[in-house]
């Protein structure tokens, strides 16, 4: 039980920092409410499970391929720049209108979360570094069942943080004034664009270094 609690806390601590995926999650909750933010996070969790399986079965070593890293940095740049710019273009439209929520499907949020996380190099490096290290440390000492339970404990920690962020973003949407919501959305858009430019720089350096 102590081991599971340790890995749960690990999941919480790793999910707490606000990176590009969390920025979009918060922006989604502010614009469209709790369920859209929560479904976005479920899409992100699906990617986490996918990468966990890849690392567990040894596929993760192919991520070290320079060509694949360039592709991932480039896709991450494109997805974040596209999302940030699209959010800026829709800033003064119905995005902050509660009635607009009905026109957005939850399916769109979960798909967005899945692909946003999938092409986020930070997510990949996290699972290779942290989860890969966990598997290496427990190799020969823990059973397959224990490793599986530890993995679920990490995911549970991530899901708790995502749930709290989804709840808080929905509360902010209800409590903040329209101008302040617009300002927050503007900040998140520039944050996405900033992360996108950073990923693009990494792709450029990996390509020409």
Describe the protein's architecture and organization.
There is one protein chain. This protein has 209 residues and is mainly alpha-helical. It has one domain. It is built from eight helices and no strands. α2 (20-32) runs antiparallel to α3, α2 packs antiparallel against α5 and α2 (20-32) packs antiparallel against α8. The longest helix has 32 residues, at 144-175. It is globular and about 55 Å long. The termini are far apart. Residues 98-103 have low confidence and may be disordered.
Keywords:
mainly alpha; 0% strand; 209 residues
For the residues shown, what is the average pLDDT?
A: 76
Distance between the termini: 47 Å
Q: What is the CA-atom radius of gyration, in angstroms?
A: 18 Å
Structure summary, number of beta strands: 0
So what's the overall shape?
A: globular
Q: What are the segments in which pLDDT stays under 50 over at least 5 consecutive residues?
A: 98-103
Overall structural domain count: 1
Question: What is the overall number of helices?
Answer: 8
Strand-pairing-aware structural class: mainly alpha
What is the share of helical residues?
over 70%
Q: Provide the β-strand percentage band.
A: under 5%
Q: Main beta sheet, described?
A: none
Order of helices and strands: HHHHHHHH
Q: How do the strands and helices of this protein lay out in sequence?
A:
Blueprint (H helix, E strand, L loop, with lengths): L1 H14 L4 H13 L1 H23 L9 H24 L16 H13 L2 H18 L5 H32 L2 H31 L1
Helix pairs in contact: 1-7, 2-3, 2-5, 2-7, 2-8, 3-5, 3-6, 3-7, 4-8
């Amino acid at each position: 039980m102590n081991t599971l609690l340790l890995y749960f806390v690990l999941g919480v601590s790793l999910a707490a920092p606000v990176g590009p995926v969390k920025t979009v999650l918060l922006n989604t909750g502010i614009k469209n409410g709790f369920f859209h933010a929560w479904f976005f996070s479920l899409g992100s969790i699906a990617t986490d499970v996918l990468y966990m399986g890849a690392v567990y079965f040894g596929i993760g070593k192919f991520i070290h391929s320079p060509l694949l890293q360039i592709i991932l940095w480039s896709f991450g740049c494109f997805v974040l720049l596209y999302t940030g710019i699209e959010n800026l273009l829709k800033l003064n439209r119905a995005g902050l209108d509660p009635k607009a929520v009905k026109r957005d499907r939850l399916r769109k949020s979960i798909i967005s979360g899945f692909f946003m996380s999938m092409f986020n190099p930070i997510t990949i490096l996290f699972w290779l570094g942290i989860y890969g290290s966990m598997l290496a440390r427990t190799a020969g000492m823990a059973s397959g069942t224990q490793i599986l339970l530890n993995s679920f404990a990490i995911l549970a920690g991530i899901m708790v943080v995502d749930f709290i962020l989804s709840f808080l973003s929905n509360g902010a949407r209800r409590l903040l004034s329209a101008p302040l919501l617009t300002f927050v959305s503007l900040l998140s858009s520039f944050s996405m664009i900033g992360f996108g430019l950073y990923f693009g720089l990494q792709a450029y350096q990996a390509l020409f270094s």
